[in-house]
Amino acid sequence: MVIGAFCKSGKLENAVEVFKEMDRMGFGTTIASYNTLIVGYCNKGLLSSAVKLKNSMGKDNLQPNVITFNTLVYGFCKEGKLHEANRMFSEMKSMNVTPNNLTYNTLINGFSQTSNGEMGGRLYEEMVRNGIKVDILTYNALILGLCKVGKRKKAAYLVKDLDKGNLVPNASTFSALITG
Question: Which InterPro entries is this protein grouped with (predicted)?
Answer without folding.
Answer: PPR-containing_protein (IPR050667), PPR_rpt (IPR002885), TPR-like_helical_dom_sf (IPR011990)
